[in-house]
Structure formats: C-alpha cells, structure tokens
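Predict fold of Aquaporin PIP1-2; 286 aa.
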Amino acid sequence: MEGKEEDVRVGANKFPERQPIGTSAQSDKDYKEPPPAPLFEPGELASWSFWRAGIAEFIATFLFLYITVLTVMGVKRSPNMCASVGIQGIAWAFGGMIFALVYCTAGISGGHINPAVTFGLFLARKLSLTRAVYYIVMQCLGAICGAGVVKGFQPKQYQALGGGANTVAPGYTKGSGLGAEIIGTFVLVYTVFSATDAKRNARDSHVPILAPLPIGFAVFLVHLATIPITGTGINPARSLGAAIIFNKDNAWDDHWVFWVGPFIGAALAALYHVIVIRAIPFKSRS
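Predicted 3D structure, encoded as tokens:
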C-alpha cells in the first residue's frame, strides 16, 4: 500500500500545476493607482521644485526652438532639397531634440515642452491646474526667446525665409490643416501616455523602455507626414514663438489652427487613455 501511495505521489509530481502566463499572470499587487492631482495646490507655490520645473520647461523649449528653427532656415536657404537635409532632416531635428530634451528634463518637470502635452496630462489629472498654467506660460516664453535668438543671428534671412512659422500650405483648406494637427497631436500625446504609464512600467518591468525614445520617434513620424500640409505644429508654443518673432500676416491668418488642433488632439488622447485603455471611471464605480 505504501508503494502504491508513493507511486501516486510521484505521478502527481509529473504534472505540476500550471502557472499563469501572459496577461493572466498580471495582478494589481505590484501597482496602486495614484490619486488624481488636485485642481489647485497652493502648497506648490512655496516649493523650489515647482519653480525649478518651470525653468526647466523654459530652457528646454528655448533650445527646442533654437535648433529646429535653425534647421528649417538651413533647408529654406538651399537651392533645392537635395542640397540640404530636406524634410527628413527637419523631421529628425524635431524628433531628435524632443528625445534629448525629454530625457534631460523628465526627472525635473516631466519633460512636457509642449502646451498640448501639458493640457492632455492635466485632463488626465496628472498635474494641477496651477502647474499646468505655469508650464504653458514658461513653454511659450521659452519658444519666443528661442525663435528670437535665431532671428538675432540672421535677421534678414529670417524674415525672407518665413521664420519657421506654421501656415496651412497652398492647396489645403483650413479644415485639412486642422485635421492634420488634431491627428498628429493625438499620436504624440497618446505615445506620451503609453510611454509614461506607471501601471505598464510595473507590469512590464522585465521589458526595458526608455520613454523619451518613442516620444521623439512619434514626433519624427508626425513631421514626415504633416510638414507638407501645415509645416507641422502639434506644439502651440512652437507655433506661437515663431509667429510672434516672424510677425507677418500670413503667420497669423491660420494661427488658430495650431492651438485648436493640438488641444483637441490632446483632449482626445487623454480621454482615450483614461476611459478606454485604463478604464479608470469604471474602476471607481466598482
């Protein structure tokens, strides 16, 4: 009898209980949903980290406009696209600078460098209204200064070559430009949410991910697609800085497109992430 019982035990050990794999192995034990940021947080104003974050956004947006507008000016000065970096080079300049600057500032301010990104994260309750307004103001000031420095280096060429200002290209309607800005910004902000999702980092901790890389790559791809349509805004601060320094009628005629489009795209991305991907409203009910 003892031998038979031992055989049964040995036979049972031959087929150990299966361990869950893939999505069935996921649990919430390693992740806790962070509370939503308060609408107003007066205590932030007394913190040096709050002001330092805004300064980081200013410097990052300043450098972003400086490098990217100079790149655009270089392409415009060339007799043809083959004699310069062309559209691909412009797209790489924008995407590469976002990659570098997000990497540098993510630990200080979150590395927004874009009012549309800030707006989307605010709608998702990732930061307070106080911080969101402060970031947007500093981003716009940084963009104005960055474009201003470029004009200071080459004032005549800057005015003659368009100053990097965004306009809806001839042959396209304002509606087409608006749609391009909405979809382009959706791609960017959706990528930001996905690359910085804390639950994803906790769940897929075995998968190394460098958040600035997909964000910068998204900017690169959107520029490849929409430079021929709008010059690619997807960043109201970038469009505002170039328009103010260039200050010609054609830069202001379509300027609303480069605020309304990115903000709508950011709002849609925030809603998609919160309601569909994360299903946060449904979790709160249960």
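The radius of gyration is 24 Å.
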